[in-house]
Amino acid sequence: MLKSACLALIALTTSVVGVPAINSFEIPDNLPANETELSPPYTYVLPTDYAPKSHGIPYTILNQSAKPWEHLNQPPARQATKLTSRACTPLTANNPSSWWYESITHNGQSSFMSSSYKSNYKVFRNVVTDYGADRTGATSANVAIQNAIQAGASNGPNRASNSMGTTGQPAVIYIPSGTYLLTGSLQLYVGTVLVGDPINPPVLKAAANFPSDHIIYGKDPNHDGTINFYIGLKNVIIDSTAVSPSQNIALLDWTVSQATQLANVVFNMPNYSTGHVGVTSQYGYNSNVILNDLTFNGGAYGLKLSGQQWILKNIKTSGTTTGIQVGGFNLVCLACSFTNAATGIDATGVSASLVVIDSSGTSIGTFVSGTNNGGAGNSIILENIQNSGTTVKLSGVTVLSGNVADTWVYGNMYARGSNSPQHVNGQSVTTPRAAALLSNGKYFTMAPPTYQKYSVDQVLNIKNVAGLPVYGDGATDETNNINAILSQYAGCKIIYFPAGTYIVTNTINVPAGSRIYGDAFGTAISALGGNFYNPAAPATMVKVGNAGDVGVAQITDMLFTVADVLQGCKLVEVNIAGSNPGDVGFFNTHFRIGGAAGSKVETNCGGTPDQCKAAWGLIHLTSTSSAYIENMWGWTADHDLDGGNGATISSGRGLLVEATKATWLVGTAMEHHTLYQYNYNNAKNVFSAFQQSETPYWQGPGNDLAPAPWASNLIASDPDFSNCAAADSTCRMAFFERISGSSDLFLYNGMVWAFFNNGGGCNGDCQKNAVEITSSSRLYIYGQNVKAVTNIFLEGTTVVATESANSGGWGGVVAAYLRDT
Ligand SMILES: *[C@@H]1O[C@H](CO)[C@@H](O)[C@H](O)[C@H]1NC(C)=O
Ligand SMILES: *[C@@H]1O[C@H](CO)[C@@H](O)[C@H](O)[C@H]1NC(C)=O
Ligand SMILES: *[C@@H]1O[C@H](CO)[C@@H](O)[C@H](O)[C@H]1NC(C)=O
């Protein structure tokens, strides 16, 4: 969310042998409201007229009568019901030289586009074979690549025209290996995913005389950063080494928000080049989740970001003067390494909390540069850091050198057994990490699967299975044939779901052995019908394994949604555990409840919350499960992405964790669920790095008071809000997090932002409570942040930490909240 006035002074005076000193510079406080020229750090202040969005992008070539809830096609009679024998051999890696995704048949679609255009719209575009891009580097390729990005239906409007909503123009721009000379910028739009061959990533090489200030603009220029969703860039190398080191150039603008992916990209710049920046986000405000698995060689900055919050995972910089500079509220760096740098992380502009975990600096000047705030703001939490020189400098003064073996905290701390904050200026505390979460002493992390070790004959396009037709057309009930294919090929084939909407009317069972891969942001499984109507006995749309199963179940680049108002739909339930960490996982897989074409929740939910109980809950990790989740946005729509319908939607629950074996949550966001965003119920052994959330915009005085409209269907793990007086309307709002009967939770940087009451502004605190803890022990909560929420932590009904006692960041910040027993 938005916007700011700003004032800031950065004074960086760093010097390392061989690295040029960075000059001091001042940011004036009279910059234009659109913030385009801002550089971090700066402070965000919501404008007084800030209001919920009422419109999204118009979808003018929508098929208005595509209403699966009214006319659902039944699949042809020939369906397999029982399969007795397996038609394939178990998957074994065979290390092919080219990627299956390049050569598999791509027959995805934009399911709700008007039929006169739909068959002429291609989701997948190979820039070489379809658009003639020169992959030898001899001649300029940017026009061909831009043509591939821009193309709409061959007889229809192009993708820059704002006529297909946010969800109607999915496009995968595939770049085969090779070198592509760019003599001009590339511009992406919502729905664009630029994908290279991960086996031999293509190089996008800027010409020596590159004419513009960015090589790639990621942000759709038609819209603010906060609604730039569904944009991706992966498996490429962007190279500016031919451009003069002093020329001001950024390799990538990434002013985009949730449900985006920037992963597995290498940025090659001249060493310590004064003008080159790997990634910026300077074209407006933005609210992002994760950027992961990125390598920066050279440059003045690797990432130079301004916006709301991020987790940066597995970032490597080398020969980059400043690895990461961020202006915003929150930052997590997980598994980051900096080599030959003046500064690893310039967090002087991280106003709430910086968390750095399992990271290192080698031959660097300063590992973290921060601001000595003296209060709760500008908190810093470091854990397991290898660095031989200056580790933390606050406002220019070195306060820590050398390694951090355990946890180092600067900010407000609630020590074991203490119910009042203590401001600590760099206190060491012990975080006894659960062994089940670790790999080589670090929290386990992994890159999203590409399945590049498997050849194309080991991947099955679910739309091309003889005898078991599946359409992904947003109009056919696909339940039986999807189930038949998943059960027949589990363990034997990777299942590719081309873009489109796959309507299901009953549970899809994902058995052990499943590996599912979609076209990012374009492939949706969508629930419909009476099986999902009973809120007293919710049915699961996608059930991953059964209790007791151990094996592989990975889901990558998929989207889960509902086509109908389904108060009895639990979208995903995970029961299976992996034999190894990461065997069970969700990667760049998101949820969307309403706000998009093809769902009754888009068109019929302009009324009251009780008229639109659109889903029982999003995702449940049951007690037998063990899963790794990276990059997940669980969004109940606060506005219509594809038009101007009202959106007062009540989904019951966000993420329910009852898992005990080991759970990894790396970059998740849950927004606008009615009872809670996150619920740890009898959970154990959980690592969470970055949990961002927002309260439903409709909640608060003047509208339904929680647990309404779910009061008659609460289950034992739901908060019942009996801690609140009957008419206490700011108490009866969704918890950010409920923790009950749980232990060994390691939660780093949680954020709950509240902006509105009953869809309008609120003065001061919009909501009373953020986190409720009961009957739990061994909790290690680092970096808990709130905006406009009175109480940060409740123990039972006792208020322990308030926003006012921990004032900082966007509201309140607790650097460490430790409950050992
Ligand atoms: C930002 O504001 C300035 C000054 O009002 C204007 O010139 C510029 O075009 C705006 N940029 C964008 C991207 O809106
Ligand atoms: C709209 O969708 C319906 C249902 O899928 C289909 O029968 C009809 O032909 C489509 N019409 C147009 C104009 O796209
Ligand atoms: C940057 O320095 C490294 C280490 O000395 C070297 O390997 C690399 O080639 C240099 N990069 C450029 C673009 O000159």
UniProtKB/TrEMBL annotation:
Signal peptide per UniProt: 1-18
SUPFAM superfamilies associated with the record: Pectin lyase-like
InterPro entries per the UniProt record, alphabetical: Pectin_lyas_fold, Pectin_lyase_fold/virulence, QRT3-like, RHGA/B-epi-like_pectate_lyase
Coiled coil (UniProt feature): none
Key word Signal present: yes
Domain of life: Eukaryota
Keyword Signal: yes
Keywords annotated in UniProt: Signal
GO terms of molecular function: polygalacturonase activity
Residue stretches making up the Rhamnogalacturonase A/B/Epimerase-like pectate lyase domain: 124-346, 464-532
One Pfam family named in its UniProt record: Pect-lyase_RHGA_epim
Protein name per the record: Rhamnogalacturonase A/B/Epimerase-like pectate lyase domain-containing protein
